[in-house]
Specification:
Strand order of the largest sheet: 1-4-5-6
Number of helices: 1
Mean pLDDT: 83
Pfam families: Meiotic_rec114
InterPro entries: Meiotic_Rec114
Radius of gyration: 18 Å
Structural class: mainly beta
Number of domains: 1
Order of helices and strands: EEEEEEH
Largest sheet: 4 strands, antiparallel
Low-confidence stretches: 1-6
Length: about 90
């Protein structure tokens, strides 16, 4: 019976300190120069990969994620599993 139960382990996290994060957001067909935002920080700015760990990944709703954090604010939160599926469909 125990082998049929989903046993979740803590997620794997890889965190890297950043000194600068730059981002640009535009709509399709934006005609002008792209406006960039730059965030510079000596403390509290991190890139983080979170990968769920479980015995059976197909039965969990958790997904691998990439985040940019300017503590305590989450600046980016990307679902890597969904991004991978989009890339497969676009190929």
């Amino acid at each position: 019976m125990e082998s049929q139960m989903l046993q979740l382990l803590p997620p794997t996290r890889v965190t890297m300190a950043l000194t600068k994060f730059s981002a640009a957001t535009t709509s399709n067909g934006y005609p002008g120069p792209i406006p960039w935002t730059h965030i510079i920080s000596e403390n509290g700015l991190f890139a983080m990969f979170e990968i769920p760990s479980s015995q059976n990944m197909s039965q969990t709703s958790e997904s691998a994620r990439f985040k940019i954090i300017n503590d305590p604010e989450v600046l980016e939160d990307i679902n890597l599993d969904a991004l991978g599926e989009e890339a497969k469909q676009a190929a």
